[in-house]
């Protein structure tokens, strides 16, 4: 996706954020076991008995489709459908100058009422690139649309996760969010990126290195986080009228995600306790 970020080039191809927290702790909500289609009680997904959900705002475009893209949209949707906790919905938004004709088909074939298209803005005005470089307002425009989508999350949304169609979630991701203590406002999980060089200067961290990248610690700070790896309490986000589209006025590099994370942290948003145990223990940072 044409993702606003200071790591613009890197994030362009940031195809894989596999958020892989291992959850060992007891769940903070009681969960019901449901039966899967085959009637077996296996790894059947669990629901939040209070009926709340995680609202995923998925920013996508034709480049995530099957024919002209990398087929990533199907993958992220499958990774959501694979969640151990099924209390989520996904709103899809598109803003581009090129249509995404396969979008409806992909959503239809996912055959899941939790997945729906919220906005499909196709217009020459939304061209991401102009003459090979990012159109000056593209990132902020997309973040403005993102802010609108956040406000369209269903009423029972407790959390919001803003992501891009080429990311991928570990199946315990939603479960991890629900495992956070009740007073937590932001769940920040560590993440993988193909474009990572943890030993480099922070802002170069997404540059491609050799081999498989290690899990990146989510610092909820500029250059040390990723849009898709944070879940925010929707109620507080709305009460404080936080808008990604406004945190970097005139900004062209799209670092809105890191700026927002840092703003919230500075404003005293309580995040899940960092463990810094890293990948081995699957800690949620
Ligand atoms: C979904 O779960 C199945 C079964 O565990 C697994 O084979 C598949 O790779 C998962 N798909 C995604 C996209 O996570
Ligand atoms: C879609 O899902 C419904 C209910 O989960 C199921 O009954 C139906 O067979 C599915 N349709 C397709 C085409 O898979
Ligand atoms: C984003 O929305 C704000 C108002 O909410 C507006 O002032 C700003 O111009 C918009 N940004 C772009 C790039 O359209």
TrEMBL record:
Signal peptide feature range: 1-22
CDD domains, per the entry: Glyco_tranf_GTA_type (cd00761)
Alphabetized UniProt keyword annotations: Signal
InterPro entries: Nucleotide-diphossugar_trans (IPR029044)
Protein name in the entry: Uncharacterized protein
Organism annotation: Chlamydomonas schloesseri
